[in-house]
Amino acid sequence: MRNVYLDTAATTPVDPEVVKAMEPYVSQSYGNTSSIHAFGRDAENALEDSRRSLMKKVKAKNHRLFFTSGGTESNNFAMKGVAFANRDKGNHIITTRVEHDCVLNSAKWLAKHGFEVSYLDVDREGFVDADALEKAIRKETILASVIHGNNEIGTVQNLRELGRVCHDHDVVFHSDACQSFTKVPVNLEKDNIDMLTVNSHKIYGPKGVGGLFVREGTKIDPLLHGGGHEFGMRSGTVNVPGIVGFAKAAEIMKDSHISHMSGLRDMLIDGVSGIEESWLNGPGKDRLCNNAHFSFRHIEGESLIVHLDLKGIQASTGSACSSKSLEPSHVLLAIGLKPEDAHGSVRFSVGKENTKDDIKYTIESLEEAVSTLRKISPFRS
Questions:
Q1: What CATH architecture applies to the domain 4-12+254-375?
Q2: Which residues pair with 66 in a beta bridge?
Q3: What is the distance between the alpha carbons of residues 341 and 99, in angstroms, rounded to a whole number?
Q4: Which of 60, 141, 155, 273 is positioned for an S-S bond with 126, CB 3.0–4.6 A?
Q5: Which pLDDT tens digit goes with each residue over 85-144?
Q6: Is 216 exposed, middle or buried (0-12, 13-18, 19+ CB in 10 A)?
Q7: pTM for this one?
């Protein structure tokens, strides 16, 4: 049976070049970066080479990169670290209704510990309005967190504009760029970003490694305490193989890959546009190169996923971190979908290894599955 993996927003396979780069630090130069002997120095050199390589990707001249276990830890670190470090200034935090669950749940946790959180609405395409952000800022506002590339519907926010608003009011600006890193150009200085969350396994690197870029001078407390690794800001034995793999994955992501994925995404969008009572969620432009998210009226997304899986096509009903939940997606509700339409939605996320034949096969299989499911749908009048 044919196998077509269209769930790269959930995770990607590790690129063979990445595996090759990691291998020496698993089996040969396996030292602890805290050790002063030769093996430790080799590991430390690999760590710092990787840090410099990743910093170049976002033109980080006045930021430090702290390595973490992934996007969830980085977002928790950013939200909680800044909140508690700046409690003497204020207790108000701003975020949006379309954030990843780890940001929203961090905000809920902070609300239980004396912080006040405001949630910005978005328009039908998932965009945050800069004027609405400015109106939400108060004298006690200390942090605003806005996702860069949305993990469900692919909307890419204008960070430069939103960051400018925050800087005009002396508010720390953070963005979750797990889905957009290496896919959308970011310049930490020009884009007015104080903190940026990135991770590895969305870009053909290993799971279990990520990072948080933090502007020099930003007041932030550590989330994890221990032996003082990562400049005293993230204790725990450093995952050198993972970090080396992360840097290599970012290095080998090319503009040609972005163009290839964008072409396949558009091909899929054009193909699905011919299916009755279906529509694209998110914007037609300013969209992640790999994301195509659709709603299909009168059917359940999970049933559609099962039918596609039987054809060898892997996709998702939404964020892989919460796809087992029976609740409709908070992102889809935020852009105005009815709960029943939100339940009938599927996210396809293409990868650099996919082909035009994969997309043709997916469109054909999708048309057949939708037709079959609508014939037996209890939701169709």
A1: Alpha-Beta Complex (3.90)
A2: 212
A3: 20
A4: 155
A5: 999 999 999 999 999 999 999 999 999 999 999 999 999 999 999 999 999 999 999 999
A6: exposed
A7: 0.95
